[in-house]
Amino acid sequence: HFRKIALINSVIITGNINERAEVRINNQPVDVTKDLTFTQKVTLAEGENVFRFEAVDANKNKANPIELRVRYIPDFFEIELNNSREILTNENAVEISGITNEPAVIYVNDTIVNTGDNNKFSVTYPLNDEKTQITVYGVTDKGVVSEKTMLNVTKDNTPPVAEFTNLPDKPVEKKNFKIEGRVNEEGQVRINNVDVAVNDDLTFSTYVLVADEQTSFKLQSKDKAGNVNKPQYFTIMRDLSKSIDKTKLNIDYKT
């Protein structure tokens, strides 16, 4: 079953079949072209319209019927927003944009804008508080009012906090060290400019290479609002006197 919404009282239905057959829409025969396609213009009544498609070949084999439901709403007016209903940002304004199915005046709280080319619109709405609720709706030239959409905007200007939780207080012996840490909110973590996965409990871990006697690491984090903390630098010491080279090659050569 397929469902569509129509804004005018007639639609053109097109389709195809995989072999020569008789096609009927609501028990009325439809012409099938040589390339096995068919086209039919139908008139819609206000409300729900049901179209049943059937096909039978010369051997009386019947295809599974297909049903199409088209709802005709003469004064239907809709706004399709490009924004999600929950918005998180670190900016002092948010852009509200979208498209309508016909020219209209768009209301974004106390800001008013007309739709432009292709019935698109865009409004830059200032954010003065940490939490802002924005109501968006439109009115057509005929006075038809769309449904109201509520957007909840959170402005967050606080950078995240990330830290290592297992920095060694003495030199390590092995060159591969599993470093662990945590952040205080959802987002991204990078160590030496390499992304590190953050777990659901906001912890993270990865193996790092401690190749020298002193190896520095840069820790950065970014939250979902786009705030980035200042890079933090840490040093891990390695005791090279206890490093073990497991690969040895000895050659005895005498003359």
Verbal overview:
The chain contains no helices and 22 strands. By secondary structure, it is mainly beta. The strands form 6 sheets. A 5-stranded mixed sheet has the order 1-7-6-3-4, with no helix packed on it. It has a 5-stranded mixed sheet with strand order 9-15-14-11-12, with no helix packed on it. A hairpin with a 2-residue loop joins strand 3 (22-25) and strand 4 (28-30).
Keywords, separated by commas or semicolons:
single chain; 255 residues; mainly beta; 5-stranded mixed sheet; 0% helix; elongated
Strand content: over 45%
Order of helices and strands: EEEEEEEEEEEEEEEEEEEEEE
Span from first to last CA?
A: 91 Å
Strand order of the largest sheet: 1-7-6-3-4
User: What are the low-pLDDT stretches, counting only 5+ consecutive residues below 50?
Assistant: none
| Principal-axis shape | elongated
Radius of gyration: 33 Å
Query: In percent, how helical is the residue content?
Result: under 10%
Per DSSP E runs of 2 or more residues, the count of β-strands stands at 22
> What's the main sheet like?
5 strands, mixed
How many helices? The count is 0
| Mean pLDDT across residues | 90
Structural class: mainly beta
Topology:
Elements: E1 2-6, E2 10-16, E3 22-25, E4 28-30, E5 37-43, E6 47-56, E7 66-72, E8 79-81, E9 86-89, E10 93-100, E11 104-108, E12 111-114, E13 120-126, E14 131-140, E15 149-155, E16 162-164, E17 176-183, E18 187-191, E19 194-196, E20 203-209, E21 214-223, E22 232-237
Parallel strand pairs: 1-7, 9-15
Antiparallel strand pairs: 2-5, 3-4, 3-6, 6-7, 8-10, 10-13, 11-12, 11-14, 14-15, 16-17, 17-20, 18-19, 18-21, 21-22
